[in-house]
Amino acid sequence: MELALFILNMNTVNENNYSIKEMLGIFHSYDFNELIQNIKYILNNYLDELIINDNFISVYHDFLYHLTDEATSNEEIMAIETLIQYNQSIIRSKLKDYNKKLIEKDIKYTRLNLLSNNLDFNLSHVNSISANKFNNGEVFYETLKNIIFDLKDIDALFGVIKNNPDAVNIRDCDNNHIFTNIIRYYLNNINNLTSEDKKFFKRTIMMFLETNELSLSDSEINEIIEDLSHRINTNNPDIEFIDKIMKSHYVQYNKDARVNALDYCSIKFPKNHIIKTNSVDRYDLRDLFTVTIDSANKIDSNNMLYDDAFSLVDNKDGSHDIYVFVPDVDELINRDSDIDKYMRGLGDSVYKKDNKTPLIDYKMAQKLSLKRPEDRNALAYKMTVDDKGNVTNIDFFRALIRVNYNLSINSANEFMNNNNDSKLDILNDMFKVSKSLSKSRNSHDGKKSRARMIMDEYNILANLATAKYFLDNGIVFPYENYKKEDIDRKYIDYVNSHMDGCDEETQKLLLSLLDYKKRVSYDTVNTGNDNFDGRAYGNVGNTLREYISVETSRLIKDIIIDKLDNIDYWMERANLDCIQYTETNARIRSLYNK
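User: That's the sequence. What structure does it adopt?
Assistant: Structure tokens below.
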């Protein structure tokens, strides 16, 4: 078959929603498997010619979606899955010389990657249809629908998606995607929903959007965007919120766009000179007044490890620049070195009386510790906050700093009440800003000392602002998720009530919905942290004590500061980090509980 005719026939099938029987006729095939073999033959022998055709990639993508929707048996679904995997193997073979840098990257390279991305989405769609059409999907769909629309249980929903990632793509008997049903329900009932229900649906929509498995066709995306565009003029902030997050996450499943680190900005410091340390550019901030505040009441400067430091600059317009500095662990420990692998396995420092194990060897940690008056290499988080404590900007950069004071909470409080060093008057300004930060996030932590509030609020700010930055820009990030409530009894009863009459495979599927624990978990999908009103939260300030902080700082340096185009690397690595760190964190927590 001529290639032009091949593309034309696929396009005709897409435009006219042909049935399987009509497809076989147009491609001159006697049965479904013959059609699949014909496509394999053409892709194997003529991909180089097809890839330069402007229409082929999008037409083939839509054709595979339609072919999957029209499949009438599990055997046909498996044949499509085999076809897609075969296509992917051909592409990998053609990309080898590019990846080995034997060939310069060109338009063919770009189109092969685009086709590969599309095939990933097609494969997710195949898996979804397989589960929905042929593996008791109706029972599962009804269970998931009840969790969302009736129980409104965010915890249970997270458990479902974590245990069954393809659940985000399940469809009803009319082939309507569960996500489009959620969006339609929310928009159509927005004026009748309580504030709690609105919060639930917003978090649900965000959870679906942040799930890497989510796969929508172009027409489904366009329907949602079009529906939002008709409603956006109502000046309803709840609709504007959905419109905003749809647009911010669109890159995750838009086949014509790829996340590129070069799209993200980095800090500009025209007034500060740059110096090189170990061939890395750093901003020299040694003249900036900087302090550490530690929870220890008696400071033993020979044994303490200082893993965060703070500075404050008044911008004279009601806003302030808050600096949080953390040790740059990579200065001494290379990624994936033997020491680094040991740290990954350990996860956290352990401080039990009869079991003390530091994350980083103590002598090495001392060389990284932000101890006065030594010059130290640090990773800096610079956040601009307005007079109400709202973050208006965040920047990330490497810095060279010199700490002026290592303070305990008690000594810092004493200095704020009565001190002879005018430089330490800045502590009172730090406290005023920390009060506005606490108020802006509706903190209900009870009474704290002033120094404790500075230490807590500045660290919390860095964790919240960093997680929000990555969330808003759709870049992979290891979120700390935490739920306070125990699992709802009515949810357990509801799932158990569906056990009778189901086959063994369906029972296993339903039981898996209950197989998750209430604890802090780390995930590249943000489900919110209940300690902070459900906001996205990260771990950036404990690089001497928590491995997840070390990895987060590396991600920031790679993607934001150095602008390395290694998103795919971090997608895989962050997911593995989150799984491993959740388990090691739980193990260490159980040690403390004992």
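The chain has a mean pLDDT of 79.
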